[in-house]
Amino acid sequence: MTKLILFIALIGFVAGAPVESEVEHKDVVPILRSERNHEADGSWGFLYEGGDGSFREEKGLISDAHGAEDDKKVSISGSYKYIDADGKEVEVHYTADENGFVPIGTNIPESISNAAKAIHDHPEPHSKH
Fold it and tell me: Which end of the chain, N or C, is less surrounded by CB atoms within 10 Å?
């Protein structure tokens, strides 16, 4: 019985495999620019730019890098952009730290960005357990 079930499963797997003519071939997007760096304190940065108009850049900074492990904080800022399926450029800028993530972009409703910024700027006090 087990062999029959495995045989049927194999037939289903093979029958469901795409035929070569059904597979969509996409062009390879060239990377026009790519940079990365890592600092001794743990900070980092990177960016890349693709030939299709895509771009991403991010920087991460470590504060109090030489202090106690619990005192270290990470703050991140970055942006990315790409061309969506409708041919429109989408661009997003963001920050993130211990108070939250704040995205601002062409595809993000202003009300969401404003709410995230308000929470970031006025965080609730952290309770210690």
Answer: C
